[in-house]
Specification:
alpha/beta, TIM Barrel, about 425 residues
């Protein structure tokens, strides 16, 4: 190829690249839900490249050649963040070859969900359709399952998708039925294994030139408190025992409680120990016959009112698309709409250490946002109109939408 041809191609590429980077989008006349509890009525928002440069009630600057979007009557929200799920790690539940979220063995802190994340999954676009722009891909199984990562739900590959790699390691605290006559013996033995593993991992970090051990090496950032230790526990006994174990033996570790169906019984305890909670699915029956039928729905409000930082999650893969509606239930049962939004946007970002980039609509953050007709937390009125990820408008179509359109058209002809 001649020098002039190569030069022309470079100039054209540069020209189109500069045009794309210089693209400015102004979205006006919408109700802006910041994500931190604030709401701006009839607001305006400006996107330049991949960042938010203005968010307010009026424009502060003039912009040439900007694309204008009139969002009158619509609502703008930050992109939703689905914590504690296996989207991108699981495709078809019944087909083992498509399940890539669990490894053999009990202690696998060296297992990383990030590199198993499948960006071409057919499930991810269905989550985007409902406003879930980010996910925490969490490994499953064993005592220590591995490390999770914060990832985009729309990307070319797992490298492009990564927002925060290895944000924490997941530990499944042992639970044994109280009906088992050897309950304490079995539980004590399981906890002893955890105690030995953490003691060995701690000693490994103190050695100047240890023989490499992938499992112990993977524990370095957890033991130093640089990343979270996510403790998966449900009942009150397990929650108390697990938190006290780490607070007494490894006070430097940053603890996050996951699942926590009994958290409402331990408000003072969780507040005292400053434990952040990632609640599991609240669309369920109560854990006990003696509980109120709506106890799972009101638990988020009880925790927030007690001063505990709370995120709302929905385990599984395809189920995660309903995250906004789960939060909507919590909003209706005392949490309030803005706090419910915060529990699926800003708080998850804070937990995973990415709140400087995503989680709320603030100047300087990534331009990842949703424009919806109606209340995004309400299944009946919510309809996503547009979505932007890193300043790029997304195509909201997915396989299910295409099939719906196909068969609507097919039977229209009959």
């Amino acid at each position: 190829m001649s020098y002039l041809i190569r030069l022309s191609i470079c100039l054209l590429t540069l020209s189109f690249g500069n045009y794309a980077l210089a693209q400015t989008t102004i979205i006006s006349h919408a109700t802006i839900h910041i994500g931190d509890g604030k709401v701006i009525e009839d607001g305006v928002l400006v996107i330049e490249k991949d960042r938010l440069v203005e968010v307010g009630s009026s424009l502060k600057n003039l912009y040439k050649n900007a694309k204008a979007i009139d969002a009158t009557g619509k609502h703008i929200y930050p992109g939703l963040i689905a914590m504690n799920n296996i989207m991108g790690l699981n495709e078809i539940d019944a087909v083992r070859a498509t399940r890539d979220y669990q490894e053999q063995g009990a202690f696998n802190p060296n297992i990383r969900s990030q590199i198993a994340y499948h960006t071409d999954s057919k499930i991810l676009p269905t989550a985007v359709y409902n406003g879930v722009l980010y996910t925490q891909a969490v490994p499953q199984g064993g005592v220590i399952s591995g490390s999770s990562s914060a990832l985009k739900t729309k990307a070319w590959n797992w490298e492009d998708a990564t927002i925060a790699k290895d944000d924490g390691i997941h530990l499944n605290w042992p639970q044994v039925s109280l009906n088992n006559s050897k309950h304490e013996e079995i539980l004590g033995s399981a906890i002893k294994e955890i105690e030995i593993f953490f003691a060995n991992a701690s000693q490994y970090q103190l050695q100047s030139k240890p023989v490499f051990n992938a499992r112990f090496a993977a524990m370095k950032d957890v033991l130093s408190g640089k990343v979270n230790l996510y403790i998966h526990a449900q009942d009150a006994h397990s929650i108390v025992r697990s938190i006290l174990f780490f607070k007494q033996n490894y006070p430097a570790i940053s603890l996050v409680l996951v699942g926590a169906s009994d958290a409402y019984l331990l408000l003072d305890f969780l507040k005292t120990h400053q434990v952040t909670v990632v609640l599991g699915n609240i669309h369920r029956l109560p854990s006990r016959n003696a509980e109120a039928i709506d106890q799972p729905y009101i638990t988020p409000a009880q925790l927030v009112q007690a001063g505990i930082k709370v995120a709302i999650s929905l385990e599984g893969s395809w189920e995660a698309r309903n995250l906004a509606y789960i939060a909507g239930t919590a909003a209706a049962y005392g949490l309030g709409k803005e706090e419910a939004l915060k529990a699926i946007s800003l708080v998850p970002a804070q937990i995973m250490g990415v709140s400087k980039e995503i989680g709320s609509l603030e100047v300087g953050k990534k331009a990842s946002l949703l424009i919806a007709e109606g209340d995004i937390l309400d299944m009946k009125s919510s309809k996503l109109w547009k979505a932007f990820l890193d300043g790029e408008e997304l195509d909201l179509k997915n396989e299910q939408v295409k099939l719906a359109e196909k068969y609507l058209e097919k039977y229209k002809k009959k």
